[in-house]
Specification:
Elements (H helix, E strand, L loop, with lengths): L3 H6 L3 H6 L44 H59 L2 H10 L27
Length: 160
């Protein structure tokens, strides 16, 4: 074999073989330079291929019952979820209804406040005060122009 370990076991055998000489000379190596043995170097592990193609699995007598129990548990879980879904939906609908009622009450309060402020601003005394602030006065007789459409039906006459 041409492995590195074999190469180092015979360091001087390679040049002799290359020169064509059929000498088997062995050069002794000093023991002071050799390495100590590795732990468990004397143990050899062999692997044997195992053929399990003829092995048949032993039937499990309770395996069918286990699958039946798992299927029953899943069916019961689905049934329970189906029974509880409408009740949970009603609870969420109740929460939404209450929030809508609160929002309606807030809108009614806001509408009432707007009606009060509109009534306060549209009183005759307030309108006169606002007109005086902006230098507005009542129109004179010559300033009012009433528009009457001509009879050519180009404009529509809206009469209430």
């Amino acid at each position: 074999m041409a492995t590195l370990a074999m190469f180092f076991r015979r360091p001087l055998a390679a040049p002799a073989a290359a020169s064509g000489a059929a000498q088997s000379t062995f050069v002794p190596v000093d023991g002071r330079y050799s390495l100590r043995a590795l732990p468990n170097e004397h143990i050899f592990l062999y692997s044997k291929p195992i053929d399990n193609s003829r092995v048949v699995r032993e039937p499990h007598p309770t395996a069918r019952g286990e699958w039946r129990m798992i299927g029953t548990a899943c069916a019961l879980a689905v049934l329970l979820m189906g029974l509880l879904t409408p009740r949970v939906a009603n609870i969420f609908a109740g929460y939404q209804l209450e929030s809508l009622k609160a929002e309606q009450q807030n809108l009614l309060d806001e509408q009432r406040d707007l009606d009060i402020s509109e009534a306060r601003l549209s009183r005759q005394e307030n309108l006169e005060v606002l007109a005086k602030r902006r230098d507005l006065s009542a129109p004179t007789a010559g300033q009012i122009v009433h528009l009457e459409p001509k009879g050519d039906s180009k404009l529509a006459l809206n009469r209430r």
